[in-house]
Amino acid sequence: MLNSYTSCHHSIIILSTDHVFLLCTIKKSRPLLQIQKQSHTDISAMKTCCIFFLYLAIILQHCFYFSVSSSSPLLLPLSHSLSTSKHSSSPLHLLKSSSSRSSERFRRHHQKRQQHQLPLPLSSGSDYLLSLSVGSSSSVSLYLDTGSDLVWFPCRPFTCILCESKPPPSLTSLSSSASTVPCSSPSCSAAHSSLPSSDLCAISNCPLDLIETGECNNSSYPCPPFYYAYGDGSLVARLYSDSLSLPPLSVANFTFGCAHTTLAEPIGVAGFGRGRLSIPAQLASFAPHLGNSFSYCLVSHSFDSERVRRPSPLILGRFVEEKEKRVGADDDDDHKEKVEFVYTELLDNPKHPYFYSVSLQGISVGKRNIPAPAMLRRVDRNGGGGVVVDSGTTFTMLPAKFYNSVVEEFDSRVGRVHERADRVEPSSGMSPCYYLNQTVRIPALVLHFAGNGSSVTLPRRNYFYEFMDGEDGKQEKRKVGCLMLMNGGDESELRGGTGAILGNYQQQGFEVVYDLLNRRVGFAKRKCASYWDTLNQS
Q: What does the pLDDT read at residue 60?
C-alpha cells in the first residue's frame, strides 16, 4: 500500500509495513526444498534485504508523522459565489433568493427523517466554494458545507434536470486511477444511511457464501448507487476512491461521490460535517493534525461582489493556544489585532451525528436578555433541538416564539425612531425592515452560548443589512435596513429536528474554529479580508 503526503517542504512516499516484504523478491516457482538448500549467504542476504526495507518503512513513517505534526496548518482559499457570478442582481433580489434558500434548507431538515437527506445550497449568490481535484482530473469548485459529511461532484456525462436558471456546473471526469468502493466498505454503508453491508452486497449480486465470509471486498461487487435529497432537488451517485489534491496536500484513497444525473443541483458539495465521509474525517486517518481541527474566516460582503474578490481563509489543522498571539501586519503591538476566542461545547446528536450542534442560552437585544427555549439548550434522545453551526445556510433561523420575542424587543427600540418599511418586507423576504435617516440607532445583538463567558457580540453588519431601495426607478430612492434573522417555524413543527441554525451571514468577520479533538466550537473577531495575507506572511 502506498500512502503519499506532500507539503511545501516535503514530498514523501510511505510504504506500509504490511507490504514491505514484497520488495524482497522470492521466486514462487522454486520448490521449497531448493529454498531450504540455498546457501547460507543467500538466506542471510534475503534477511538483510527484508530487515533493511522494514527499517526503511519505519523511518519513513516516522519522518511522515514528524513532517505532518510539525508543519504549519494547511491554508486554502474559499471563494464566494458572488465573486464568480456573471449576473448582477439588485439587493432585494439577492435578499429574497437567499432568504428563500435558507428557509427551504432549514425546513427540509425536518421534512426528511432519513439520515443524510439534507438540503444544500440551491443556487449561486450566498455560499462559499472550495476548489479541489481528484486523481488526474481538473480542479472542481464545490460548496463548503459543515451541515453534511459527503463529498460529491457532477461527473461527465452529466444531466441536470430543471437547471435552466441555475449556475453552470463545474464538470470533471473520473481519472484512470479511480476505483469503485466495495459494497462491504463502511463508507458504502455510511452513504446508504448506515444500511448493513450484507444488504448492500446482496444488492450488488455478491454470492451468499462470500457475503457470509465477508469476501465481497473487491471491484466485482461495487457499492450500489445511492440517492441523496436536497431542499429543491436530488441526485443519484456512486462512490469511488482516488487521490485527493488540496495543494500542496495529496491524500491517497479518498472516497467521494460521482453524480451523472441530478435534479436542480448543478454544483457539488465538499462535506465538512462530523461523519466518516467528510473531508476532515478522511484527512484524520492520514494526518490527525490536519483532520482534528479546522477553521474559516468568512469575509464580510453585505452582498457586494467587490468585497468578496479577496479569498476567505480555510485553515486545516488550526489549533488555538489558550493565550492567542496578537496578529497583524507589523511589529507594533498597538496596531496588531488582539484575538480572543470564545468557546462552546459540541453536543452529541444521536439522529444527526454529522451536525455541529451547540447550546444557545439566550439572545440579548440591547441590555435585555431573552432566554432561549429548552429545545435550543440541548439535543434530546430523538436528535431534536440544539443550534447547528452551518456554513451552507445563509441566515440564522430561530423557532417562531423565540424569534418573535427577539423581533418584538428589536422593534420596540428601532421602530420608535425609524419608519417601518412594510412595502419592502415581502420583496426582500426579511422582516422587520425600516426606512433610515441620517442618524441610525440600532441596538447591540449578543448570542449567549453555553459555557462561562461564551457570549458572542455580533457586528451590526452581521444582523442589520442596509441598502438603497428604488434603484429600479419605479419608486423614490430611500435607504432601508432589515434585521437579518429568520423565522424557522413553530416548535411543534421542529420536533425531532434541528432547533435552530447559525447561518454563514452571522459568522462573517469571525474566525470560526471547529476543534474536533476537544469537542468544541470557537469564535474570534477577525479582519478576514486581510487575514489571508497575514497568514501567508507568517
A: 41
Supply 411's cell numbers: 422593534
| Set of cell numbers at residue 206 | 455478491
Residues of the chain predicted below pLDDT 50: 1-41, 43, 46, 50, 53-70, 87, 112-126, 322-323, 325-332
One-letter-per-residue 3-state SS of 424-436: HHHHHCCCCEEEC
Cα 457 off chain centre by: 24
Check: CB of residue 276 under 8 Å from CB of residue 151. Answer: no
Catalytic residue of the set 127, 232, 390, 469 = 390
**Distance set, CA 129 to CA 143, 169, 500 (Å):** 5, 13, 24
Angle at 126 between CA 123 and CA 131, to 5 degrees: 80
DSSP secondary structure letter of residue 333? G
N residues, the chain: 538
> What pLDDT does 88 receive?
54
Residues with Cβ within 8 Å of residue 511, at least 6 apart in sequence: 295, 296, 297, 339, 341, 523, 524, 526, 528, 531
- Which residue from 147, 96, 105, 153 is spatially nearest to 125, judged by alpha carbons? 96
Exposed e or buried b for every residue in 39-75, given b needs 16+ CB within 10 A?
eeeeeeebeeeeeebbeebeeebeebeebbeebebbb
Distance, in Å, from the CA atom of 69 to the CA atom of 66, rounded to the nearest integer, reads 5
Rounded Cα gap, residues 173 and 118, in angstroms: 25
- Name which of 73, 6, 140, 83 is nearest 314 in CA terms: 73
pTM: 0.81
490 among known catalytic residues: no
Tell me how crowded residue 3 is: count the other CB atoms within 10 A of its CB.
19
Q: Counting beta carbons within 10 angstroms of the beta carbon of residue 29, is it exposed (0 to 12), middle (13 to 18) or buried (19 or more)?
A: exposed
At 107-116, the pLDDT tens digits run 555 554 444 4
**Which of 127, 145, 242, 515 does the annotation list as catalytic?**
145
Query: What is the SS3 assignment for 498?
Result: coil
Cis peptide leading into residue 157 (ω within 30°): yes
pLDDT at 323: 41
pLDDT digits (tens, 9 = 90+) for 277-317: 999 999 998 888 899 999 999 998 767 767 667 899 999 99
Is residue 34 packed enough to be buried (19+ CB in 10 Å), middle (13-18) or exposed (0-12)?
exposed
Q: Are strands 396-398 and 485-487 parallel, antiparallel or unpaired?
A: parallel
Task: List all residues 6 or more positions away from 70 whose beta carbon is below 8 Å from its beta carbon.
Answer: none
Is 145 a residue of the active site? yes
Tally the C-alpha atoms within 13 A of residue 469's C-alpha that lie toward its C-beta: 22
